[in-house]
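User: Need the bound-state model for GLP:
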Amino acid sequence: MHVNGLSIRTFPSPVAAARTLARDVARELTRNPALVLGLPTGRTPVPFYAELAALYAQGRADFSQARTFNLDEFLGLHRDDPHSYRAFMQRHLFDHVNLSARRIDFLDGAAGDAEAECLRYERRIARAGGLDLLILGLGVNGHIGFNEPGRALTAATHRTRLTAATRRSNVALFERRLHDVPREALSMGMGTILRARRIVLLATGAGKARTVKRMVCGAISPALPASFLQLHAAVEVWVDGAAGAALSASAT
Ligand code: GLP
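Assistant: Bound-state model below.
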């Protein structure tokens, strides 16, 4: 199904979507071993990372020439902090595949000069030739990366203040202590995201249904950052039945 230029694929379950996406990435790696991947954190991609690790263990995915850039990181957290997104990626993917550490790029939440760090990251992405395939999750409030809803969006990688809703949705990473969730983060900007050659947004679960509907069928607005994906020529929205429920309701 195509709506507003977005191609929508519906899967019977989150695991089915994760498995198909992992195979898709493995195929892309075969075609282009030096693939530049953009990667998300969150609960949604966890089964996808497990599937990628399984494909690697079976000798069906080779990351030896690949590069990765993660979307975002909490401000103030060192990469070794177990609550950092870097540590999350280490646990769920990097420790399980043959990606060499020097091919893993990450925003440094502990950088002394956050603005310089954002510039550095933007340049690294450009020097790598841009992102070939960017996988995105979707915040319940419509954020992608940490591009939060507001009156305006920022194009480049930037420092950003997190909304209360986003801090609450990340609380599980901090042993449910809301007080410990950082108030700021560093994130790829909307321009950084829209320059990726191919984008797959993964959304699963009933909690995302309303946001998916607004992203796909609503107006393009900074009040729902993910709606800007309608402007990109190669975005695929991959949902399970629950996250896509409001879409099929409108299609019939
Ligand atoms: C987090 C991340 C996003 C992620 C989103 C959804 O705050 N910064 O990159 O896509 O929230 O998370 P989940 O997949 O847990 O719903």
